[in-house]
Amino acid sequence: MWLQIVDLLWSDPMSQNGCISNEVRGGGCYWGPDVTEGVLGKHNIQLLIRSHECKQDGYEFCHNRRVLTIFSASNYYEVGSNRGAYVRLGPDLVPHFIQYQANRSTRKLTPRQSVGQTERSALRALREKLFAHKSDLISAFQEFDMEKTGWISLNNWAAAVENVLRLDLPWRVLRSQLVTSAQDGQLDYHSWFNELAIKEPNIEIPHQNLLETMYRHHSNLETIFRIIDTDHSGLISLEEFHQTWKLLSTHLNIEISNEAIADLVASIDFNKDGSIDINEFMEAFRLVDRSRAEME
């Protein structure tokens, strides 16, 4: 019986099919999408909602959107490392997510002030996500704009946004918070991105999609840096990098030699001082992303 309780508490989904022991947690297992389909189909269940696994945005779908992870503890690793979230299910059983980022000041707020701040934080995160998918959204808008006028109806805007982001949010309700420049029910979708109030860095970007990619992954990379920086010194030492890669290789069942890890550290350590700071870490991923774009 106790083994079943451990499995319920500590098992995590994985992308590949099958079921293997969860050596990272030391309990439970990893299960794949085939297991999810079999169990949910057997018991006539549409969606499995679980927790106990930190997610950058506070929630995450996997296994063809049949498994939903909810993680309510924001700032899990340290302040700013991740958002928290909870989910509401209405009569239609469609999940609606509320994200938040707690800080010391929120403890002094009244319930009404706290809700207002949570809503503002959620809208800010939503604007960031919309901007990060700018190219995909413009392509979706253009499918409704057959005559290439640069304008679409607000209903088509809502449909296109959902088709791209797949968040199951009430976009028509949120429209008044996200769109203010519409005229007679029509939206200039190229100009609309200026409303999101996200300032682009004053740097030269050689490829159109690179800036969006950096926005999309910037917070994730910062979180990864903080996780590897176990002593919170602001620098990743060779030992910290080595331990993290060994843990990842065990988790992903990938063999990686000590020499390969040392070579990887050397390639990221641009100033050759024996450690990696946040700028070197971010730059390494930017260069990888740029090289990939040049090959396409």
Automatic annotation (TrEMBL):
Highest taxon in the source lineage: Eukaryota
Is Hydrolase one of the keywords?
yes
Identify the Gene3D superfamilies for this entry: 3.60.21.10, EF-hand
Gene Ontology terms describing biological process:
negative regulation of MAPK cascade
Q: Which residues form the EF-hand domain?
A: 132-167, 216-251, 256-291
What GO MF annotations does this protein's record show?
calcium ion binding; Hsp90 protein binding; protein serine/threonine phosphatase activity
The record's keywords, sorted A to Z, are: Calcium, Hydrolase, Magnesium, Manganese, Metal-binding, Protein phosphatase, Repeat
Q: Which cofactor does it need?
A: Mg(2+); Mn(2+)
Keyword hit for Transmembrane helix:
no
Known catalysed reaction(s)? O-phospho-L-seryl-[protein] + H2O = L-seryl-[protein] + phosphate; O-phospho-L-threonyl-[protein] + H2O = L-threonyl-[protein] + phosphate
Database matches in SUPFAM superfamilies: EF-hand, Metallo-dependent phosphatases
Broad enzyme group:
hydrolase
Q: So what EC number does this one have?
A: 3.1.3.16
Checking InterPro entries in the record gives: EF-hand-dom_pair (IPR011992), EF_Hand_1_Ca_BS (IPR018247), EF_hand_dom (IPR002048), Metallo-depent_PP-like (IPR029052), PPP_phosphatase (IPR051134), Ser/Thr-sp_prot-phosphatase (IPR006186)
Q: Which PROSITE patterns match?
A: EF_HAND_1, EF_HAND_2
As for family, the record states:
Belongs to the PPP phosphatase family.
Q: What is this protein called?
A: Serine/threonine-protein phosphatase with EF-hands 1
Q: Which organism is it from?
A: Anguilla anguilla
